[in-house]
Structure formats: C-alpha cells, structure tokens
Amino acid sequence: MSATKEATKRPPYGIIAILLAGAFVSILNSTLLNVALPSMMEDLKVKETTIQWLATGYMLVNGILIPTTAFLIQKFSVRRLFIAAMLFFTVGTVTASLADSFTLLLIARMIQAAGSAVMMPLLMNVLLTSFPIEKRGGAMGILGLVMIFAPAIGPTLSGWIIEHYNWRTLFYMIIPFALIVLILAFFKLKDKKDKVDIKIDILSVILSSIGFGGILYGCSTAGSKGWSSPEVYITLIAGVLGLFLLILRQFRLEKPMLDFRVYKYPMFALASAISIVVNMAMFSAMILMPIYLQQIRGISPMHSGLLMLPGAIIMGIMSPITGKLFDKYGAKILALIGLAITVGTTYSFSQLSDSTSYSTLIVMYSLRMFGMSMVMMPVMTNGLNQLPQRLNPHGTAMNSTLSQVSGAIGTGLLVTVMSSRTKHHIEDMVAEATSKMAHMTQQPTQEAIAKMQEHLIMEGTIKGINDSFFVSVLIAAVAFILAFFLKRVTQGQKQES
After folding, report:
1. Which residues cross the membrane (predicted)?
2. Distance (Å, whole) CA 372 – CA 343
3. What is the spatial distance between Cα 281 and Cα 468, in angstroms, rounded to a whole number?
4. Is residue 125 a contact partner of residue 73, using CB atoms and an 8 Å limit?
C-alpha cells in the first residue's frame, strides 16, 4: 500500500518520458510510409495491391498482438517489456532500411509492428497507475499530444523526404532515435516486478487472432474489393465468429487474457462506444482528403501534408490544455463542444468543389482538429477512471484494440461509400450528357468528348467524396448524442459482482 502511495505522490517522470519518446517514434514511423508507397512500388517493382500489404500487414500484427498486452503488462515489468518492444522495433527498422526485396521489407514491417503494438497500452497503463484520478487528465493530455502530433506531421515530413531523397531515408532517419530510446531504456528504467503466477491461454490467443485479425483484414480490404467479395465477407464472418468465441472463453477463465468484464462499468462502455464512432468519423479526413487534394486538385504530397500541419499543431497545443480542463470540468462539456465543432466542420467538408481554396481547406481542417482535440482523450480517460486498478491493463488493451478495429471499419465503409456514390454520379451525368448530345445539331469533336469525360469523372469523384463526408457527419452526430450521457466517475464506482 505504501508503495502505491509513494508512486502516487511522485510519478515516475523519467520512465514516462522514455516511454513517451518510444511511443512517438513508433507512431511517427507508422504514418511515414503512406506517402512513400508509390515510389516504393516503382523501386521494388510490385503492384498497388501488393505494396498495400506494408500497411495491411503492420495493422494486422498490431490487431493480433494488442489484445495480449493486458497479459504481458501483468506478467512482466515495464523495463523488460519496453526494452523487448523497442528491440523488436529497432531490428525491424534496420532490416527495412536494408531490404532489397518486397518480402524482406514486409517481414521487417511486421517485426516493427510486434514492437509498436505493446508501446501505447504499456504507456497508458503506467500513466493510470502513476497519477491519481484528479490529475490523470493532464497526464493523458501529454499522451494525447504524442498520439495526435506524430501521425499529423508524418505525411508532411514523408512528402518532403520523398521529393528530395530515396524512400529508405524514412527508415534511416528513425534508426538513431530508436537506438537512443533503447539505450536510455536499458540504463534508466529500473522498475522491478514481483514474480506473477500467470500463464497465457493459447486458445484465447488463437481466437483473438482469428477474431480481430479477420475483422481488420475484411474491413481494410472491403474498400478496394467491395463488401460482396468472398475474400471480404468470409474473413468478416470468421472474424465475428472468432470474436464471439473469444468473449465466451474469457468469461470462463479465472484469469482471462482480455477481460471483457470492463464493460460492466457503464462509463467505460460508453467511452468505448463514443471512441469507436469518433474514430470512424476521424478517418474520413485522413483517407478522403489526400484523394481530393492529390488526385482531383493535383496538389503535391508535401503540400497536402502542409495543409494538415496547422491542425496538427493546434491539436498538439490543445491536448495538454484539454487534459487540464478535463481535470477541472470533466469529460461531458468538453466532448459536447468538441463534437459540435466536429459535426459542423465535417459538414463543411461535404460541400467541396473543384474551386474550394487552399486557405479555406486549411481553416476547415484546423477547426476540425480543434474539435477532435476536445473529445478523444477526455472521453477515454473518463471511462478508464471508473475501472478498478486491476482492470487497467485490460481497459487500455481494449481501447487500443478497438481503435484499430474502428479505424479499419471506418476506412472500409467510407471508401465503399465514396466508390459506389462516385460510380452512381458519373453514370447519371454521362446519361444526362449523352441525352443532350443526342439533341445537338452539331456533334462535338473527339477531343471535346474526351475533355468532357475527364470533367465528368472529376465532378463525379468530388460528389462521391462529399457523400462520404456526409456519412461521416451522421456518424459524428451519433457520438454527439451519446456524449449527453457522460457522467463524471470515481474509480471502481460500480461494484464488481
């Protein structure tokens, strides 16, 4: 008991700083590659469907390993777990920088993912156990800065590097930072953990891999192959079945790998629901904006990234401020204000045209990020605050897993909406144009027809993107309604049965 009080009085800032640095490097790395995929595809001589596995494979390993982090956090000390994670990540990064084939590069990315999967749940658990409830908002705000700022600067930085250097530079750049964090962790992390008599349930790992892996893969490939593809719906059915069996298995185990009893706590359950919905809505800008900017407007990858940078800076500045406001006022008022801004700005994105100015897009995106900064971390922290300490590892693992799953569902859904609505709009406009040409006395030249077709495709794509953003408005509106039910809680407020 005295050790817990001591930890509460003096949070281990050194440990937290090292963990934050590792998480930042890991998250930054995961976002650097998207802009580089076309040049990697050309250099490694592989097709678009093949190169996408660098992102899909990374996501799948994360989705399979994150549910096991609750067990790992209970079994091993922070020192051993973090050093092992950083070692995997560093070895993967070095291997990727030297890879001369796609197969070796994919293996390297999956080794990286094995390390990065552990970092965020581990860091979140350390923060929860190091700070009392009344100070957690500020601490989680710093974590939010890392979670938000790293992926936001990734595309800008990656775009600039790809324009001036080889894609391998993306990995060369990460190596020294990863090594510094690894060395600091080796010499500075000193925490000890009593031997814990806990064994992992192999069947739970298998069911978790099938469940979360199947859902992640099915949703992430639905955008390109369509929901009617056997590859999509068979993996989704397998995933749902695997997840159902996993939940049944966990309730029968005395010491479950991933304890679904966290959902007995209503504010944690509500926080999960809001986070899933907001995550799905958030992915609309991350996926649709690059398509609109680069393919429709012809804006370079670097300038596309620069457009998103002010929003990232605002979110980075706001994250610790939001944390302090959460400690003072709670999650409800912040979430309602943030979601109202998110719904309004997302609606403005559903009104895009081929002449929307660059400055207007920056303002709209920055306002949207400002709104988002007031939602995710306060809602998540409020939910975790209700859990008793023994369930913290399970809560953090559940949140990280659901973040991956909801992101994949959001991606699949929004890309599908965009694709189907684009096709519908183009067909309608082509039929209308054909009807008009049939009544013309002088038929247009082939060159005029080609230009008209190009214009119709562009207009149809913009309308498809707008429709997809409008679906995001409806999704964000659901989160806004759910936020009215948020209540401020104390730890373990609901009695365990």
Report:
1. 12-33, 53-73, 80-99, 105-128, 140-161, 167-187, 199-218, 230-248, 268-293, 305-326, 333-350, 362-380, 401-419, 468-486
2. 10
3. 10
4. yes
Token pair 């593809």 is at which residue? 229
Q: Does residue 339 register a pLDDT over 60? A: yes
Alpha helices in 165-291 (DSSP H): 169-188, 202-225, 230-252, 266-290
Distance CA 430, CA 410 (A): 30
Report CA 209 to chain centroid distance, whole Å: 19
**Contact partners, residue 270, CB within 8 Å, separation at least 6:** 383, 482, 485, 486
Question: What are the DSSP calls for 417-431, one per residue?
Answer: HHHHHHHHHHHHHHH
The torsion angle over the Cα atoms of residues 126, 128, 132 and 138, rounded to 10 degrees, is 90
Q: How far apart are CA 261 and CA 356, in angstroms?
A: 48
Predicted local confidence at residue 154, as pLDDT? 79
Q: CA 331, CA 329: separation in Å to the nearest integer?
A: 7
In this predicted structure, the answer to whether residue 299 has a pLDDT above a threshold of 50 is yes
Fill in the DSSP letter of residue 261: G
Three-state SS for 228?
coil
Q: How many CB atoms lie within 10 A of CB 51?
A: 22
Q: φ, ψ for residue 242 (rounded to 5)?
A: -60, -40
Q: Supply the DSSP symbol for 336.
A: H
Query: Using CA atoms, how far apart are residues 484 and 69, in angstroms rounded to an integer?
Result: 32
Share of the chain above pLDDT 90, in %: 26
Quick one: DSSP state of residue 229?
Answer: S
- Tokens (6 digits) for 174: 């990460």
Q: How far is CA 1 from CA 16, 128, 455, in A?
A: 22, 16, 70
Per-residue pLDDT at 228 exceeds 90: no
Burial class, 453, CB count within 10 angstroms (exposed 0-12 / middle 13-18 / buried 19+): middle
Residue 273: its pLDDT value, please? 93
Q: Within its chain, how far is the Cα of 460 from the centroid?
A: 28
Structure tokens given for 119: 């970092």
411 to 236, 239, 282, 405: CA distances (angstroms): 15, 17, 10, 10
pLDDT band at 284 (very low <50, low <70, confident <90, very high): low
Q: What angle do CA 344, 345, 349 make, to 5 degrees?
A: 120
